[in-house]
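Quick one: structure for this chain?
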Amino acid sequence: MSAVVSNTCGKPAKTVSDAKASIVSRAAAGSVEEAPAVMFRITSSNELTLPSVQIYDCVYKARGKTAKFRLQLRQDRPASGEIPMAPAEGKFIAVGGSENTALIEDLKKALEAKHLPKESGRITELAFGAVVIGERQSRSSGGAYSDKPRGDWKLIKLFLPRGGDDGEVYLNLNPVSGEAEFSIKDSDYGDYLLEQFAKVL
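Got it. Here's what it folds into:
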């Protein structure tokens, strides 16, 4: 698999910094439309878990607001096959004191949701199903992913709720650089995903 995601819009992607996360634009493979992505910082947790489970502390800072949440991901085997893929699952875990206003506003743009979610109660965790669609990927300055040269990005498609497909979204992780991003799968999922994320991120 030489390229999982390619950039057809020709615009350079912004890079995420420790001080501030940002929206970057890139296009899904085979698409001529821009596919915005919300980038955030991740740090591997020191919690002891199974070798197949990774836990990340996640932070998104923008416009004076700091959203905090945790990501738990379980992948029992590496991606393999002619088109390398591997089943996975996980959950987002709420963190007290998270200010998610700016994050939800930016996710609304990136996921092409039509409405901001109404006020709803917080939940402690949000479980999802997943499939890993690329490992050891490199990311170009334009936002394209490729396995040549090898890199540190893992590309994942999430299914919410776990066991269903009411919402699908891409989640790409680079534990080495401490970067991660949410990227749109289909605008039809936007409002559902935003409503779910607002409860836990």
